[in-house]
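pasting for the record
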Amino acid sequence: MSINLATLLREGTKKSHSMAENVGFVKCFLKGVVEKNSYRKLVSNLYFVYAAMEEEMDKLKEHPLISQIYFPQLNREKSLEKDLYYYYGPNWRDEINVSPAGAAYVQRIHEIAANQPELLVAHSYTRYMGDLSGGQILKKIAQQAMNLNEGVGTAFYEFEEISDEKAFKSQYRQALDELDVDEATADRIVTEANAAFGMNMKLFQELEGNLIKAIGQMLFNGLTKRRKRGSTEAGLATVSD
């Protein structure tokens, strides 16, 4: 019996996908509210996550299932290194730390790679398909919100080895559908994909406090400037009178 794993994953994670999009940090991002310090912390966490996932997938590239969805052209570790160099400077490796949510995410990846490697399919699907689907939109938002020049700070969203992202996604979905998995294994992969969405949500939630503080500071600074400008204008008006 054929298992349409791509469809099962899409349908089985709809609720989690919607919940992730409604986390405060993500909602702000999609509306163009992006604070550079919070964003670079997200980039550093993603670096640890992708480094772990890509390390394990490379080790398992001969595995009967992982080999079928192992596409090195998807790898994000090197592109994230470029972004970290931009945001933290040449000593970025000494500057970044994985957060508690990031550490739990990384631990889970290593754990399943050692004990249930087939579940790495869920993590690959959750991250890479999301990156391919919304990457260009998020790149433009980040550039506009943080006043970034083209080619700096957004390497994460660039898939230089993939010329047609839409065609590649179709290829990836086909590879998922051709995996030799039974119904029980497919169900476990879908369950793990929902857990992966939850781990990503926790990464975003950790950043909300910093983002709220930054927005509050920006509003305060704007209000202070308006008050100073108002006082100056009032003083000028008095002199004129």
